[in-house]
TrEMBL record:
Cell compartments where the protein resides: Cytoplasm
Transmembrane segments annotated in the record for this chain: none
Family classification: Belongs to the UPF0291 family.
InterPro entries in the cross-refs: DUF896
Designated name of the protein: UPF0291 protein SAMN02745823_02843
Pfam family of the protein (one): DUF896
Matching SUPFAM superfamilies: YnzC-like
Keyword vocabulary terms for this entry: Cytoplasm
PANTHER family on file: UPF0291 PROTEIN CBO2609/CLC_2481, UPF0291 PROTEIN YNZC
C-alpha cells in the first residue's frame, strides 16, 4: 500500500477524534482501512507460506495452516 494512503488513513483518524467525519470521509476511511488490512494479510500470508520450523535435532518442516 502506498505511503500516501497510509498517511490519509492517519489524517482521517486524527480528524475523527477531533471533530468527527462526514459521510464521504467515513466511506473513504472505511475503504482505505479495508485496502490496508487486505495488503497486510497478503504480506503475512506470503511470509507464512515460506516459513519453516526448525527442530532442535536439525530437521525442518514447512509451517502448516490451521484448519
Amino acid at each position: 500500500m502506498e505511503q500516501s494512503k497510509i498517511d490519509k488513513i492517519n489524517e482521517l483518524a486524527k480528524k475523527a477524534r477531533a471533530c468527527g467525519l462526514c459521510e464521504e470521509e467515513l466511506a473513504l476511511q472505511k475503504a482505505l482501512r479495508e485496502e490496508y488490512v487486505a495488503a497486510f494479510r497478503t504480506a503475512l500470508t506470503n511470509t507464512l507460506d515460506n516459513t519453516y520450523i526448525q527442530r532442535p535435532d536439525g530437521t525442518r518442516e514447512k509451517l502448516k495452516r490451521k484448519e
